[in-house]
Batch of 2 targets.
Target 1
Amino acid sequence: MKLEIKDLCFAYGTHEIVQNVSFEAEEGQILAVLGINGVGKSTMLRCINRINRPRSGKITVGGKDVARMDGATLAKHIGYVSQNCEFSESTVFDAVLLGRKPFIQWDVTGHDLEIVQEVLGLLSLEGYAMRSVNELSGGERQKVAIARALAQQTPVLLFDEPTSNLDLKNQLEVLQTIRTIVREKGLTAVVTIHDLNLALRFADRFLIMKEGRVYADGGAEAVNTAAIREVYGVRAAVMECSGRRVVVPE
Ligand SMILES: Nc1ncnc2c1ncn2[C@@H]1O[C@H](COP(=O)(O)OP(=O)(O)OP(=O)(O)O)[C@@H](O)[C@H]1O
């Protein structure tokens, strides 16, 4: 389902953070949200998920107004992985099973258990199923949070820096897993990410934010020398390397 954001505005008190942000995220695609620290990327994701109440603007999923959804309906449409993955004490299996909560009526079904088993496998977490989440490393916990969102099986997924605690191999594997699921199941993913090269490698479209507004919205060509200079204040070369667009800061 398509995610559409129209004229979104949000402020903490009088501090305007998100200002007239509009964009669309398409089915089967990953949209990377880029921009400097504090520009409002996480705040915007939390508006989409209704953790933050927007001052104005409209957010729809598949044409349905997110503001009018009840909690259970919202949880069936939008999955969210926050930057700080905190869990209450449980096993990894149960933490991932929590993703099924919006669908569980009386009791957990065999179908729920199968889904949990499947996502644990996708993220190579099978061996961790009976471990306590609070005994895991930051990166392992981040993978559990991603697994829980995938178990929720929502058409829209929001990931706030999903690879920030992961080593290089896990960064590549986790983003590849997300991309495969997004493409195969026709999901819509919005991912905030600082690593421009990872973004260029895995995302289909790029929303660059500056001072709370949309600076650019487009394909890989949006990530160019001028944008990097104007948004990050960094001189960088953007070149092709092994058929990929890469950013090399000077
Ligand atoms: N609960 C809050 N109350 C007041 N101000 C906040 C709150 N949370 C965030 N802010 C401020 O809002 C601005 C945007 O923060 P946000 O976390 O959305 O930025 P970001 O682009 O995600 O940054 P980063 O890349 O560092 O994660 C920052 O100036 C931040 O200090």
Note: The two ends are 40 Å apart (CA to CA).
Target 2
Amino acid sequence: MGSECEFALKPHSAIERGKPFLLIIMDGWGENLEDDYNGVHMAGTGFLKSLKTGYPDRWRTVKAHGTAVGLPSDADMGNSEVGHNAMGAGKVISQGAALVDNALANGNIFTDAGFEYIKETFDNGGTLHLIGLLSDGGVHSRYDQLELFMRGAHERGANKIRVHPLTDGRDVPDGSSVQFVEQLEKDLADLRAKGCDARIASGGGRMHVTMDRYEADWKIVERGWHAHVLGEAPHKFQSALEALVELKKADPKTNDQYYPPWVIVDKDGEAVGPVQDGDAVVIFNFRADRVVELSKAFEYPDFDKFDRVRYPKVHFVGMMQYDGDLKLPARYLVTPPVIEKTSGIYLVKNGVRTFACSETQKFGHVTFFWNGNRSGKLDDKLETYFEVPSDLCPFNEKPLMKAREIRDAAKAAILSGKHDYIRINFANGDMVGHTGVFDAVLDACSVVDECVKDLVDAIDSVGGSYMITADHGNADDMVQRNKKNEPLRDEKGNPLPLTSHTLAPVPVMIGGPALPSNVRFRRDLPKAGLANITATFMNMLGFEAPSDYEPSLLEVVRL
Ligand SMILES: O=C(O)[C@H](O)COP(=O)(O)O
Ligand SMILES: [Mn+2]
Ligand SMILES: [Mn+2]
């Protein structure tokens, strides 16, 4: 981690160390057009609105999408990984999506060690299995990357390919799985025309099958293991399209996110693509959080989170290495972004006592992503990480989620006098936003407003300071729109829900008794993004930020 003096920070010129500082991330909370579909605006969010209108020098927005957070283009919505990486690290880092694009464009993905490793199995007649999220959401994966990879792998000797797609409906509209499966079938047919035995083998909805995160519910991964690896699922079909249509007919309430697991079988009822000894397995998601668990199931011989029944000997690689601390997986196709010298490391090296807390769904966001995709603590003595277990139901059913429990834990941390820096994430705007259920979003945003107010009161009572911000938009626009930005409706006239993140900038609010009255936001950084947050909160903790960080948003004015 380097020497102490390499990390020494100078004291800030106007802000003293010593009083508690609270950093709140409101996940999925953008600053957007204030119309009837903006859940943040329509909810009871009077306290946050009062900070906007009451303190214009201490309220602003920053960019949270596209190139400002290291994504390939400004058409890319922000997401939790890139947002928390940027806020934790103080720099704009080229992220997984961009790195995979580069590796495909320059061909390195097919010449580096990870591909060499899987290629060994092609030469021995092994099947290439591809497991991952099937959409063009660009958050966890992208379809065009899968297509290019399949084609390139076939050109380099993969003669049998089995794809195990997970349907999305979360980063893209619900129902779009049909188009993506049709596109995949077309591209697989092209491969078959070239002599490759290429087929879809199994799948399911991403929130019910395979893509759990932060060990919220291992059963999700177990279902995936049974379908993808063992070739077993309660629902068997002859084609993936048939699976989507028939499963929806049988349960109209199911959707792309929550499809049950399914397996494709041949005319004799045999699964067409279970994973066997000698095969290659690639997870084609570039983002880590929702594939760490499946990677462990493939990689760890002594795995005990569920009974794998059969543990095939395969050549397993991730699109990236998903956990830099655990070196998981050991083999990967594209080298992950280097995220070093994060704010967390600087702050512990300067003796800052940190309390980081969220509920399970976002716990790794304020720890793992925050620390540059490292799973462990940076300093056992100075840091306390506290996880509130999340509910296991769809979050529109319990939109308050664990906001009040997080508030209570953070409040106790503030009042205890044991922590200098309290960092929390409220999941509601995002997790309920992804359900597309507008009334639930209203409850989700209101409870965040209530909890933020209580915590600002607690900070006031101990003479501390606070920053409230967000990682990207979501609840701030809950309707799909046409190119003119007009809401789209179904045949009954109901608005078509938007389940994904938005491109909106996010608010940043600062205040509290410890913030000197002559400190306010600069007016000369209109293009600032999430990476500018970092130097700003390091200032609020009493330090000048490292010189290679994006500039602080603060200025000290003469009164
Ligand atoms: O994984 C998810 O839940 C979504 O794809 C992205 O949401 P997040 O980036 O807010 O986690
Ligand atoms: Mn998020
Ligand atoms: Mn989200």
Note: Residues 27-28, 80, 83, 430, 471-472 surround manganese (II) ion (ligand 2) (CB under 6 Å).
